[in-house]
């Protein structure tokens, strides 16, 4: 009520300003009249009474002021006055205003955009019910250095039934599969889940239903749930799609539900969002028998902790349970493996690997906004010196220093607010555009948007910058000496040492921040350059790759490619046909296209290995990646054989099993010996035949240009075929031309096979570096900007000093100083500032660089080249930026300068 | 003004105005005169502090104002104590009494 009255009367006072003032005026007159009457009654004459009353009342204007100041509206008015004045001041210097607002818009805009990504990816909780109780569950064998190993169905059941820490548990398998029975065969991302999955995440269907107790079967459920995107694309958003059956890698799948548009699977995927959810009980065909020894389930597992259970409590119980299980089944859990169960918050698991990159990018944009605001502070300070006289006059006319500071801060805050709003608008307008350059491998990108938190951050950043660059001139104004300033009229020796020191500090910090940004950019760019120069172990030029997937239906009767012979026959026919395409010199098949990212559950990961004549107990740490290739693969990729022979058409089923190993494998398992002719096999199953090593090939960077030292073993695709394969062609034709021809040849053999991911090998390599390129270019761009701003800062400072000290220079020259002396005077100043700024920047970078360690490859955080090149470059730029104004100082004509003084 | 005039204790002017208005509605000068008379000239309230106080009290809803004719048939703004103002005066008076008593005890101790 009181508040309302305050508000109402305040607004009334603002709106009816004249009326309220008149009323007060009349009241005061009535007061004086009453006083006069009273005094006359006491015997004064009219004139005496009037004079006495006036003296008693004092200044009517002062009373009006006092009354006016009691309401909140007076503050509004004062602020409005300040703003009004500030706007006029900004309009008066359009050049400065434009530069300040543009650089601010850039800085705040970049901050807004990057922070919106950081906020959505790292900070916002996952979009599921009680997301902080969701965890990723790992089975680890720390004794042999293995994480996330395969597991058995009984182990999965232990999590649900025995551990007592989970409300729900769901294994998450999957990958991609062929979708047929729709218009055009498609390659789709799918996940294989437990029946508890949707309950665990708290998902609700858009139409139809999700999995419930009635679905539970030991093997695969015939029912699937599809995404909103798939429903719209392939079924025209038709509600009758429920109950429709399509083929999924050959298996019939019936749609029972459609998820809402916003729902996304909480995990990494191979090539886009998950479109199909299929569920299984993981205990009957085609899954292995549920024994502990059948620990071949290959799935990431997610669980929901019981309410009130902390991560530490849950972990402690799981560790204890794992120990008990090891004790209960000693034969299934070799002691040296130290098999155990670990959990990690799901969000941490999903975004943990992009955190360093995002933090570095956020750091870069915050640094740039600092530099921008230091730069503006510098400009403002230069102008503040010019405004000394104005300030002095206003002080002399009775303005309080507090009021002056408020005025200056209002100007700065207004500037920063305008710049900030421009920046936020820029971010809004360009966010979609920016996101196109953000590597798709960053999780949760689809959730990125500018929300209240981002806006608050952007406004905070704007206001902070406003305070930073507003404080300098405000502090400066405190030093104004009225008499001096007015007398000197801002001319003469207007360079006060106080301002000088403040500006020096600003320049030095600007340079130091620039160094930090440039060092970061240098390290990232060097990493990128090293990776681009890295020899991938093959020649990617004139190679086109495409993916073809032979389906693996769960029902053997549905599988036209069951067993080795039909797959091998398909591959031979495919290669024969591909080679007939005009312009194709060679064609080959691989199951592991270099540098294409592996899905979470890629079965071609590290496999256990046995080596003939080697004691079994050491077999635990024998591992290698298996790559299946066709005979021409090495020839096509131009990967040289070091020893032995390549595969031939004759290395097929029924013949002696052969393998080719890479140099890493040879070095790792046969150091100093010749591996050719020795025999190995995958797994520890003694009934499987030994495979003879027939050759050694140079290392190929299969897993990514930045991943070294993984042993690879190549086998012939005719002896050991695999459904997920890529064809590679050596050709001078571009991928776009070949795409339809490759699809034609594949679908002539089998119209149900999709062809996807057709691109040149160089593009494949490029794409594998997308996120590194993005962060390097972003930080690099900002480093360039920082360099420019810092050099402008130095230039501006010295140019200002030269103009302020023209008389002093003239005097020195008149007294015999040479032009060289004058040049040295100013150069020295610039060089000294640069040296201090650069030195502190280098010191700071050196201590912060190790934070970037995980983003670097082939470059140490304290890379001497970067730490030498950056200071030298910045120093050179600083010297040039100081030389130009210094030279102008030597052009001062003593006669003119002294006469004008 | 004169030497016998002393500054009012911070915040007591509001209370004095409320007390004065508790008898009857009054205009600004009337209030000033009444305070001066009753305090036997110890407190002389000048308009510079009186008018802002009126505005403050009005904003807080303790007094309201009305233009009325004076006894000499002039127009003047009369201030009237509201119910809220009466309650405020009561609590202020009690509080003041407590403070005075406490100060007196300290001074006599």
Keywords:
heterodimer; A: alpha+beta; 6-stranded mixed beta barrel; 21 strands; elongated; B: 109 residues; Arc Repressor Mutant, subunit A; 4 helices; 3 strands; globular; disordered N terminus
Radius of gyration of chain A: 38 Å
Rounded radius of gyration of chain B (Å): 15 Å
CATH topology descriptor of chain B: Arc Repressor Mutant, subunit A
What is the arithmetic mean of pLDDT of chain B? 84
What is the strand arrangement across the widest sheet of chain B?
1-3-2
What is the count of distinct domains of chain B? 1
CATH superfamily of chain B: Winged helix-like DNA-binding domain superfamily/Winged helix DNA-binding domain
Give start-end ranges of low-pLDDT stretches of chain A.
489-495, 599-604
Number of helices of chain B: 4
**Helix content range of chain B:** 55-70%
| Sheet/helix structural class of chain A | alpha+beta
Tally the beta strands of chain A. Answer: 21
Share of residues in helices of chain A = 40-55%
Cα separation of the termini of chain B? 35 Å
Shape of chain A: elongated
Strand content range of chain B: 5-15%
Task: Provide the domain count of chain A.
Answer: 4
- The CATH first-level class of chain B comes to Mainly Alpha
Structural write-up:
- The complex is a heterodimer of chains A (901) and B (109).
- Chain A contains 27 helices and 21 strands.
- Chain A is of the alpha+beta class.
- Chain A folds into four domains: 2-71, no CATH class; 150-338, no CATH class; 354-532 and 770-900, no CATH class; 561-749, no CATH class.
- In chain A, the strands form three sheets. Chain A has a six-stranded mixed beta barrel.
- In chain A, strand 17 and strand 18 (691-697) form a beta hairpin.
- In chain A, helix 12 packs antiparallel against helix 17, helix 17 (497-533) packs across helix 25 and helix 23 runs parallel beside helix 26 (864-890).
- The longest helix of chain A is centred in the middle third of the chain and has 37 residues, at 401-437.
- Chain A is elongated and about 135 Å long.
- Chain B is an alpha+beta fold.
- Chain B has one domain (12-108): Arc Repressor Mutant, subunit A (Orthogonal Bundle), CATH 1.10.10.
- Chain B contains four helices and three strands; from the N terminus they run H-E-H-H-E-E-H.
- Chain B has helices at 12-23, 28-38, 47-60, 83-108; strands at 26-27, 63-69, 75-81.
- Chain B has a three-stranded antiparallel β-sheet with strand order 1-3-2.
- Residues 1-5 of chain B have low confidence and may be disordered.
- The chains are: A alpha+beta (901), B alpha+beta (109).
- The interface between A and B is medium-sized, with 28 and 26 residues.
